[in-house]
Every structure is written in structure tokens, then in C-alpha cells.
Amino acid sequence: xxxxxxxxQYQHVQEGEDFTTYCNSSTTLSNIQWYKQRPGGxxxxxxxxxxxxxxxxxxxxxxxxxxxKKNSSLHITATQTTDVGTYFCAGQSNTGxxxxxxxxxxxxxx
Amino acid sequence: xxxxTQTPRHLVMxxxxxxxxxxxQHLGHNAMYWYKQSAKKPLELMFVYNFKEQTENNSVPSxxxxxxxxxSHLFLHLHTLQPEDSALYLCASSQExxxxxxxxxxxxxxx
Lengths: 110, 111
Prior knowledge:
The complex is a heterodimer of chains A (110) and B (111).
Chain A: E1 4-7, E2 10-14, E3 19-25, E4 31-37, E5 44-49, E6 55-58, E7 61-65, E8 71-76, E9 85-92, E10 98-100, E11 104-109
Parallel strand pairs in A: 2-11
Antiparallel strand pairs in A: 1-3, 3-8, 4-5, 4-9, 6-7, 7-8, 9-10, 9-11
Chain B: E1 4-7, E2 10-13, E3 18-25, E4 31-37, E5 44-50, E6 53-57, E7 64-70, E8 73-79, E9 87-94, E10 101-102, E11 106-110
Parallel strand pairs in B: 2-11
Antiparallel strand pairs in B: 1-3, 3-8, 4-5, 4-9, 5-6, 7-8, 9-10, 9-11
């Protein structure tokens, strides 16, 4: 069945350093969504990418969707302590089924 | 902040108990979901309801029984659970297959 793999599982960075998490799907996706879950909280939608090769930015966050629509990345520039949490990608197939990756937990040392 | 509410927020139950989790969405969405979140499997889809019809059952044991009486309410009935069922149970809703809005979750502990 469809699988979505996300790496790394954990990342510790010093405040001000950059951070990237990668997402790979075993099948071509209709779109990919990204969510953030703060410690003790619930996943919150960040963005959706639909087009092949699409790049979107939200302040210090840059999201990319691969040309083949099978992979994606989230890059955070100059991390801050408020960026702490777990970032999930979720790949959506043509049937509408959304499969979440395992998540990348980001720790930021002040 | 969220238009999706869940009750109770915390639940401790014995293996012989029967309990129910409740989810309500105030967003006018037509799809609702139950997820299980544990340390081993971060976000595991359990059930999907679209226009009150169950469209997905991800091989969930029969000790979990969902109910969707209308497009705004979703229940998860629990009976004879096992300690390994202890987890955070998240409800979410969406309009069609667009972004999902999650509730705060129910932290379940099975003794």
C-alpha cells in the first residue's frame, strides 16, 4: 500500500541554525500537506502543495514539492525556539486518502 | 482556536469498562476522522466518515466501534480495551479532501 516516509525522526539544532525535513512517497501524490504539532498540542495545518515543482514560503518556512510529485521538503531558516514541535507531511492520493509521515521532531536550543 | 472539540480530554479505564469518546465539529465540514497517536505510530488513521457514511476502516480491532449520527458529530465507542490501546485519540474534520482540522484529543489510559 501507499507509504509516506519522513526523515529525520529527530533533529536538535542551535537557535539560529537552519532545519530541513524530507518526505518521500512510494506513489505519485495528488497533493502534499504539512502540519505542525507543538508539544502537548494537536496537529495544525500549515500548507498544501499541489503543482509539480511548486515552492511556497511562509516567513522563514520554505516548502517544496518535487517534480515527480513523490517527494517534498520543509526548510526553516534561522530557527527560533517557537519552531519547536513535530512536523508532519501528509501525502494525498487521487482517491483522497491522506497518509501521514512519521514526523520530524525539532528541538531548538536557545 | 479550533472548531473541533473533543470530550473527555483525559480518560482512565479498566479493561472491562465501556466508554465513549465524543467529537463535534462546528466548521460545516462533510468528512470526519479518528486517528490514534502513540509513540510507536505517530498518526495512525482509524476511521473516515464522509457525509455520515464510513468510507475507511483501517483494520481497526472490533473493540473500537465508531458512530457518526450526523455530519457534525462523531463518536468512538470503546469496550474491553487492552493496555496497548493507551494513546492520544484525535478527531479531525475536513471539507471534502482538503486540509484537516484537528481537535485537542483525548488522552486514554487503559489499566
